Amino acid sequence: ILYENILQTIGKTPVVRVNKLGPEGVNLYAKCEFFNPLSSVKDRLAIAVIEDAERKGTLKPGMTVVEATSGNTGIAVAMVCAQKGYPCVICMAEPFSVERRKVMRMLGAKVIVTPAANKGTGMVAKAEELCEKHGWFLCRQFENDANPAYHANTTGPEILSDFAHTNLDYYVTGYGTGGTFQGVSKCLKNGRPDIKIVLAEPEAAQLVHSGVATERKDTGAPVGSHPAFSPHPIQGWTPDFIPKVLEDGLTLELMDALIPVTGPEAIETAQLMARKEGIFCGISGGATMAVALKVCEMAPKGSTVLAMIPDTAERYLSTPLFASIEADMNEEELEIAKSTPNYQLLPKEEEA
User: Fold this and answer.
1) Is the CA virtual torsion 253, 148, 18, 237 positive or negative?
2) Is 42 assigned a catalytic role?
3) What is the tens place of the pLDDT at every residue in 113-166?
């Protein structure tokens, strides 16, 4: 297939069977969104928001595009801007992985890092401030209806097509903006009314479970930080407010179950996915799969469970996902190296 540009390769990501982690008698699958060109589900969001703004005339040639992001949306927006020729400025809170900043800068974006103490609401406020000052275009991923609409028109139909000739009983996803949850769930509920939608959120930041609403500005953006939020390692999931897009999905009563997951569970499951299945997913994918495995344990025999895998483990090299993985050879590897006589790179003896 010959494509006219990289943006034409977004979507149509594969659904892959998970063979070794789930219980017998339940079919478990992963929709691997890291097959998108910039390796995350947020590629869909970026092209959706930017092309919607182009059609409406709110984004004009030469305008600077701005977004507040934990990283994946910023990378996706930077890619779309690079291809379309827009200047790009990304606001990103300090705790998110440094490799994400470097990827965005390699794509030509300017990255404005905001203090960790101000959390996600701080990076959103900074993006708003910059756009108000300079007349730039703000994507507003957390409030923009083009976000879930794109998932309802692409991601959801892809899933229905993939499972056209078999049952699909449970769909499991976390939330960042809530766009995947709202858009996909709406489509799946229309096509498969009996499907159960399972929403996952960090145990350390159970904003939905709290029942406490987020106070909003007229734009739909949050006024301040949510009282149920505390820091968690599942980057890309659950900012310190309930996004408007997520709230709208909850209002539509698309969710059938809400299941929390811990950071250690997410990290362990992501590592198991790599070692047992060869599926190289990030912490958010590990979190989703950890919840999907809990669903599998409760599901009747013969059920089919689909977990949404947002991104790749390569986005997390400087995070706790890789904390237990050494760069140097361990004892077992050294023994293998020494089992033949040549080409040995052994640790230097410490000087007395």
Assistant:
1) negative
2) yes
3) 999 999 888 999 999 999 999 999 999 999 999 999 999 999 999 999 999 999
